[in-house]
Amino acid sequence: MITVFLPCRSGSERVKNKNIRTFAGVEGGLTRIKIEQLLKISQIQRIVLSTNDEEVMKIAESFNDRKIQIDRRPQHLALSSTSTDELIDYVGKIITEGDILWTHVTSPFVSAETYSRAIKKYYEVTNEGYDSLMSVSKIQTFLWSSEGAFNYDPLIEKWPRTQTLRPLYEVNSAFFMANHLTYISLKNRIGQKPYLLETSKIENIDIDWEEDFQFAEQVWRTR
């Protein structure tokens, strides 16, 4: 059994009403877009929409789909100060069986096809020694810290070809997959050996600031 955990609290400070405001002409915005995407995925049996926002609840209820389960999240777990670790502990208590796909409405370009591919890959790799999966963005460019070059040695070659640089991976938070027991035993949404699934540049777009929202709207309109 696959259950989606979709957190969607009210009170965004950086982007006002980012979950529900009209997005590129879509009424219901990012919440409606993400629910529509998730409902297309046959492998998913349940979508737990965890929110303290009445408007988000209305959008979800408008689908009238039995797959959608609204979790009225306690207010103390829907604050800007609430840590992800606290929320992970909560998820382990409300989803008590099967595998959990944790995703966000703020990644609107992760399509139903990509989720399906991720689910298929998850079941493949968990038979190969991995215990979880998460989406990442590949970084293979010149990286420096305040102490100098980080992923290459300029004493050997000042400017090597980028394709020869050691690749690094940024956790882009588009999605995570793990069994519910991982949440209980490790207090984490990934296991001790996660598979890193690369997503495309457009799928990596995450809406965290007002500029992100406006940029994503323009990209959405051109697709």
Automatic annotation (TrEMBL):
Q: Which InterPro entries does this entry report, sorted A to Z?
A: CMP-NeuNAc_synthase, Cytidylyl_trans, Nucleotide-diphossugar_trans
Enumerate the Pfam families for this protein: CTP_transf_3 (PF02348)
Q: Enumerate the GO terms in the molecular function aspect.
A: N-acylneuraminate cytidylyltransferase activity
Known Gene3D superfamilies for this protein?
Spore Coat Polysaccharide Biosynthesis Protein SpsA, Chain A (3.90.550.10)
- Look up the EC number in the record and give it: 2.7.7.-
Q: Has UniProt tagged this entry with the keyword rRNA processing?
A: no
Keywords, A to Z? Nucleotidyltransferase, Transferase
Record field: transmembrane: none
Instruction: Tell whether Transferase is among the UniProt keywords.
Output: yes
PANTHER family, sorted: HAD SUPERFAMILY MEMBERS CMAS AND KDSC, N-ACYLNEURAMINATE CYTIDYLYLTRANSFERASE-RELATED
> What is the protein name for this chain?
Acylneuraminate cytidylyltransferase family protein
What is the organism of origin for this protein? Answer: Peredibacter starrii
